[in-house]
Design a protein that fits this description.
The protein has 18 helices and 10 strands. It has about 450 residues and is α/β, with parallel strands linked by helices. It has 3 domains: about 70 residues; about 200 residues, 3-Layer(aba) Sandwich (Rossmann fold); about 150 residues, Serine Threonine Protein Phosphatase 5, Tetratricopeptide repeat (Alpha Horseshoe). The strands form 2 sheets. It has a 7-stranded mixed sheet. A 3-stranded antiparallel sheet has the order 3-5-4. The two termini are about 45 Å apart. The protein binds S-adenosylmethionine (SAM). S-adenosylmethionine (SAM) binds next to loops.
């Protein structure tokens, strides 16, 4: 494919085109473009004119230019990513989830009455909403009173906004029975909007599988019962897939499930999983009796952190090692040990807002919502400028049905961050910048205000 202007063929022969290509593949994982110069050049062309860059040299310079570069990279990602998706794609997988996977999860989680699901690379959201529909329509009786969280993440911010809006055209329903569409969506002009009952458990979050940390309790990416990552890794190279699968393994509870697309990957990448063929759908299950294989934590990316000062005003911790240890227990989902570790830290540093904050995140994971809310409020009392604590209080209040309180907390995030340079790192934010957290707070206000 070449642009109608013919500029893309010039771009592909630019001496710095290979460097630009490497930079993009490194930041997105999209090795798909490694042997598709014309298609890549065509897609980059669409940004060059808008960005006012004449060649690869000036465009690369722009991409590496702090926050302006991150904004441009986001816009380019919107051109490069392929968001093909629809409701109940691959129906045999949804049958397998309904008939085998969810019943097993429900049996196993009877004591906690919680289910956590991650749709990684969710595009505009149909996969996450399809799961919500299935759980409510087919398993609603078994799940009455349960706490169900379905999280969709993606690297494309425009897709996430559309996912949060939850409005779809006819084409998105090509594998959906009419009866389901009529029952679960409301007409909106020529489109269909997901009904509130089916969106309540679903939320969306920006996350780059190649650059951002996971497992991570801070980003609520751990202890999932099921991870779906379908038709995403087909665009990545094998080494990257191996690394991501290992990170997914760290994010799953014991006997948790991983579902990929039918043509995603070959068998030898799943040595630590047992493979199950359920009516033609392949799903991978993490064993229940092995040690968790933790990959090393990835370094924060430039797109998720930068130079500049620090948002928070907490004094530096006298000894970071116990804190890192406690956080790694939490990231691994070892809740009892993490709770004990944070309790010891609170005894040692009772005025440290950050320690209370992480303790609250673990309390939330064990569904002790009262104590989690109280502890988050205490962290904010100790440090009113702790933007992460305001943010997580918003998430928790939303979960507890206090929509107004949640919106107030997200507004507090924006007030705390007001006036700070975009690329300022958030303290203890795993590489997150002020601009990242602002974006998350705004997306949450959009998603959660409508509930
Ligand atoms: C073809 S869609 C798949 C959507 C959905 N999972 C499905 O199967 O219907 C692939 C999605 O992966 C996302 N993606 C690509 N690279 C990614 C990355 N590095 N991190 C997170 N998401 C990524 C794209 O933005 C796109 O939305």
């Amino acid at each position: 494919m070449t642009g109608s202007t013919g500029v893309s063929s010039d771009l592909a022969s630019d001496p710095l085109f290979p460097a630009l290509k490497d930079y993009l593949i490194d930041h997105t994982g999209l090795s798909y473009y490694a042997d598709k110069n014309a298609e890549l050049a065509d897609r980059i062309d669409r940004r060059l004119e808008v960005a006012g860059a004449g060649d690869c040299t000036s465009y690369l310079r722009l991409l590496k230019d702090g926050r302006a570069g991150e904004t441009e990279l986001d816009a380019l990602v919107e051109e490069l990513t392929i968001g093909e998706t629809y409701f109940f794609r691959q129906p045999e997988l949804f049958d397998a989830l309904r008939d085998v996977v969810f019943p097993e999860i429900i049996e196993k989680n009877r004591a906690t009455r919680r289910i956590r699901i991650w749709s990684a690379g969710c595009a505009t959201g149909p996969e996450a909403y399809s799961i919500a529909i299935l759980l409510k329509r087919d398993l609603g009786a078994a799940l009455a009173g349960w706490d169900v969280d379905i999280l969709g993440t993606d690297i494309n911010r425009r897709f996430l906004q559309r996912a949060a809006a939850g409005v779809y055209d006819e084409w998105a329903f090509r594998a959906t029975p009419d009866s389901v569409r009529t029952a679960c969506f409301r007409p909106q002009g020529a489109h269909h909007a997901i009904a509130p009952d089916y969106r309540r458990a679903v939320s969306f979050q920006y996350h780059n599988l190649v650059k951002h940390p996971f497992p991570s309790i801070l980003h609520d990416l751990q202890a999932f019962d099921l991870i779906l990552c379908r038709n995403v890794m087909i665009y990545f190279n094998r080494d990257l897939c191996r690394k991501i699968i290992s990170q997914f393994e760290g994010c799953l509870v014991e006997r948790g499930w991983l579902a990929l697309g039918p043509s995603d990957l070959s068998i030898d990448l799943f040595q630590h999983f047992s493979m199950r063929n359920i009516g033609g759908a392949i799903v991978h299950q993490k064993p229940g009796d092995v040690t968790i294989h933790m990959p090393p934590s990835p370094q924060p990316s430039p797109a998720y952190g930068g130079g500049g000062g620090i948002v928070d005003v907490m004094p530096p911790a006298p000894d970071v090692e116990p804190r890192a240890g406690a956080q790694s227990l939490a990231d691994r989902g070892d809740w009892d040990a993490a709770l004990r570790a944070y309790e010891r830290l609170i005894d040692a540093e009772p005025l440290n807002a950050s320690v209370h904050f992480y303790y609250a995140l673990v309390l939330r994971q064990v569904a002790n919502y009262d104590a989690s809310e109280k502890t988050l409020r205490h962290a904010i009392y100790l440090d009113r400028r702790n933007a992460l604590a305001h943010h997580h209080l918003g998430l928790l209040l939303h979960k507890r049905g206090d929509a107004k309180g949640a919106i107030r907390s997200f507004q507090n995030v924006l007030s705390v961050l007001a006036g700070l340079p975009d690329d300022t790192p958030i303290e203890n934010g795993d590489g997150m910048t002020v601009s990242d957290l602002r974006g998350v707070a705004r997306l949450n206000m959009e998603t959660r205000a409508v509930l």
